Amino acid sequence: MALTILMVDDEPLMRLSIVDALEAVGHEVSAAATGTEGIEEARRREYDLVITDLRLPGADGLAVLKAAKAARAHTEVVVITAHGSVETAVGAMKFGAFDYITKPFKMDELLLIVERAGTVIALRKENQDLKEILEDKFSFGGILGSNTKMRAVLEKIKTVAATDSTVLILGESGTGKELAANAVHQNSPRRDYPLIKVSCAALPESLLEAELFGHEKGAFTGALRQRRGRFEMANRGTLFLDEIGEISPVVQVKLLRVLQERKFERVGSNQTIDVDVRLVCATQKDLRKEVAAGRFREDLFYRLNVVQVVIPPLRERQEDIAVIADHVLEACSSKLNKKLRGFSQPARELLLRYSYPGNVRELENMVERAVALGREREAIQPSDLCGFQTCPYQGGDPQESCGFCQEGLTGGGAKKKEVPLTALSTAREEFEKEYILSVLERVEGSRTTAAKILGLSRKALWEKCKRYGIPSAREGSESDE
Ligand SMILES: Nc1ncnc2c1ncn2[C@@H]1O[C@H](COP(=O)(O)OP(=O)(O)OP(=O)(O)O)[C@@H](O)[C@H]1O
Ligand SMILES: [Mg+2]
User: Fold this and answer.
1) Could you tell me if 316 and 357 are in contact, meaning their C-beta atoms sit under 8 angstroms apart?
2) Range with the lowest mean pLDDT among 29-33, 175-179, 274-278, 334-338?
3) Which fold has domain 424-468?
4) Which residue, judged by its Cα, is nearest atom 30 of ligand 1?
5) Å from CA of 148 to ligand 2 middle
6) Residues 214, 233: Cα–Cα separation, whole Å
7) How far is C-alpha 120 from the geometric centre of its chain's CA atoms?
8) 38 within 8 A of 10, measured Cβ to Cβ
9) Nearest CA to ligand 1 atom 16
10) pLDDT of residue 445
11) Which of 61, 66, 396, 409 ranks highest by number of CB atoms within 10 Å?
């Protein structure tokens, strides 16, 4: 592979002959005659490889190495050292040099080292490309997910984003509801208009009403001037109502009217305002229960529940734990410019075993802390993940450990499913049922489409559904039955 190389040496003859030799085998080479010049150049451009003499006038080769690595961690550095000062070269290895070569050397020896560096660089690039392809496949709008259920969720978000339907996002705290709302807006035709967010739990009833619909000057104590509401601000864009389960009956009625008529009035005004707003709502609450308990209007629920996106808790999608943990590890370590060797095996096992009551947010915080605590060039250990002084992984008393360590010690809340040994026919039926259910979910309950995908006649599918007790229309989605 042709590399971009920076050659730093103060001896003109040496510099020129190395540049010539490297160019002769196809590399693109720049040269610098002093350490200071080398540092400037390494910062100015992205080099695959820097070759530097250790002894230079001004800033020395070690300074060039450090500056090149700081500017771009993926740049490899080969140092040239005088005979008898190998210790300095070994020191350079500690600062991340790829290799060193001792003077005097044959050009072929240097070319061999460069070739090895080239192989490593090419492999890394290939990995990066592959990763981007995979991430593309397993992510949408920044939401990572390789678990089957999660991929169906991503598909659904992608599909619904293109429409103008109201979306109701359900999921426990930290599962990524806000991220999903962002993805819906950013991938919708409204993306060039605002996405306005309102947390309905953060404000008392009277203020929430004014916040949403705006108010006239003097509409209530404290309303010193006229103010536009969030609905107006979101015009032509998207309004994200977070924690919709918290809104009071009065606001529920007002919201229902906007949804029905796309019209409202500012608090304290008779003038009707029209808006073109797409609504996305989210809640951790079970809205059906809220309806049953009389706390949430049923008519409003149906208006909001046009397309339902349910984000499963992290403990139900173990595959995503590793994907997200690796992603956060990489993002954080590059932000902190810290080189870590990934997760140690015990740390990885603990991560998979934990139940994450705080879902992705908790995992994210845990890995961020681990990156901050982890030792440079070492793998992350269980104790880095926990960070509690009293924890057993820190040498403390198991009785006083945090939830993470306790679950790690006792086997955890998200234990691997034990597969019971059953007859093949039973296993096949179970799979068949699960598979039909997942297809029906993907096609929003339409049996005609599902039958086509499954390669069954409608009648055959109907019989199977009956046998497996699959109801004809799934909750919250339309069906052609
Ligand atoms: N699938 C995912 N891939 C990558 N990051 C994620 C994913 N899900 C959530 N996150 C990250 O986890 C954090 C929490 O997500 P978010 O704020 O969207 O959750 P939420 O469901 O709105 O939580 P809450 O109910 O507490 O408001 C964010 O930093 C978000 O970027
Ligand atoms: Mg949220």
Assistant:
1) no
2) 334-338
3) Arc Repressor Mutant, subunit A (1.10.10)
4) 176
5) 23
6) 10
7) 27
8) no
9) 176
10) 84
11) 61
Of 75-84, 126-135, 189-198, 304-313, which gets the smallest average pLDDT? 126-135
Task: Identify the residues whose C-beta falls under 6 Å from ligand 1.
Answer: 143-145, 171, 173-179, 284, 324, 360-361, 364
The domain 315-410 is placed in CATH, from the list 3.40.50.10730, 3.20.20.60, 1.20.1420.30, 1.10.8.60, at 1.10.8.60
- pLDDT reading at 452 higher than 90: no
Which residues are within 8 A (CB) of 295 and not within 5 positions of it... i.e. 6 or more apart?
A: none
Give the separation between CA 61 and CA 237, rounded to whole angstroms.
55
Pocket test for ligand 1, best of 179, 286, 326 (most atoms within 8 A of CB): 179
Residues in the chain: 481
Domain 4-133, classified CATH 3.40.50.2300, yes or no: yes
Decide: residue 87, CB within 10 A, 0-12 exposed, 13-18 middle, 19+ buried. exposed
Average pLDDT, integer, range 2-17 = 96
- The answer to whether 205 and 251 are in contact (CB under 8 A) is yes
Are the CB atoms for 463 and 451 separated by under 8 Å?
A: no
Residue 411 clears pLDDT 80, i.e. is over it: no
For residue 182, the ligand 1 atom closest to its alpha carbon is 18
278-283 β-sheet, strand order: 195-199, 238-242, 278-283, 167-170, 307-310
Is pTM, for the whole model, over 0.70? no
Mean pLDDT value across residues 329-350: 90
pLDDT at 480 over 60: no
List the shell of residues around ion ligand 2, using CB closer than 5 Å.
178
Contacts of 443 (CB under 8 A, 6+ apart): 449, 450, 453
Q: Does residue 16 carry a pLDDT above 80?
A: yes
Ligand 1 probe mutation, 335, 361, 363, 364, most atoms within 8 A of CB: 361
Pocket test for ligand 1, best of 360, 362, 368 (most atoms within 8 A of CB): 360
Instruction: Give the pLDDT of residue 475.
Output: 40
pLDDT band, very low/low/confident/very high, at 479 (cuts 50, 70, 90): very low
The CATH T-level fold of domain 162-310 is Rossmann fold (3.40.50)
Residue 472 pLDDT grade (very low, low, confident, very high; cuts 50, 70, 90): confident
Same fold yes or no, 4-133 and 424-468: no
Average pLDDT (444-467) is: 88
CA-closest residue to ligand 1 atom 31? 179
pLDDT of residue 442: 80
User: What per-residue confidence (pLDDT) applies to 271?
Assistant: 93
Q: Whose CA is nearest to atom 28 of ligand 1?
A: 361
